[in-house]
Design brief:
- It is found in: Cell outer membrane.
- Transfers a fatty acid residue from the sn-1 position of a phospholipid to the N-linked hydroxyfatty acid chain on the proximal unit of lipid A or its precursors.
- Helices cover 22% and strands 45% of the residues.
- The protein is α+β, with helices and mostly antiparallel strands.
- The radius of gyration is 17 Å and the shape is globular.
């Protein structure tokens, strides 16, 4: 296998953690959903329209959900970067496969990779302006969890103009854990 095939196998393996393998064997809604999902991942991998540069921009720990001494010592400047490939489908929705690494709350490197999808609207007469809502599914790994891969399923939202998009997610959690806003810039070329 070459590097591209190894990466595709890794991404499909990671994304399969988010849905039981039995989805593919079941009839009805779950089978249809799984078929659509896997078809979109495969199409995005095989026929990208764009390559994307990811630049982490901000991490914010919700002050209402943390003790002040914790937020005072957390890193909220997620230096790093990433690369991906994406496409727009015939409905105008965005699909992307990505791999990004950034400095986490403890200022340690955290990789994340997977597939993202956003329903996209163009509410103005200017077709370059777009808004999006969707999800990402994949895996991450953290130093404080000994870099064991952890599956993620998170919401996505974005606002963009032309090839530049400000994309964001919310990591849910409990008191002093999670409840983090994370955003990055995505540039298509």
């Amino acid at each position: 296998m070459n590097l591209n095939n190894n990466l595709l196998v890794l991404i499909l393996l990671i994304t399969s953690l988010a849905a039981p393998a039995s989805f593919a064997a079941e009839q009805g809604f779950f089978s249809k959903t799984w078929d659509t999902f896997s078809s979109n991942v495969s199409e995005t991998w095989s026929n990208p329209e764009h390559y994307d540069l990811y630049v982490p921009a901000v991490t914010w720990h919700a002050r209402f959900a943390y003790d002040k001494e914790k937020t005072d010592r957390y890193n909220e400047r997620p230096w790093g970067g990433g690369f991906g490939q994406s496409r727009w489908d015939d409905k105008g929705n965005w699909h992307g496969i990505y791999l990004m690494a950034f400095k986490d709350s403890y200022n340690k490197w955290e990789p994340i990779g997977g597939y993202g999808w956003e329903k996209t609207w163009r509410p103005l007469t200017n077709e370059n302006f777009h808004l999006g809502l969707g999800y990402t599914v994949g895996a991450t790994a953290r130093d404080n969890w000994k870099y064991i891969p952890i599956p993620v399923l998170l919401p996505l939202a974005s606002v963009g103009y032309g090839p530049a998009t400000f994309q964001m997610t919310w990591i849910p959690g409990t008191y002093n854990n999670g409840n983090v806003y994370f955003a990055w810039l995505r540039f298509q070329f």
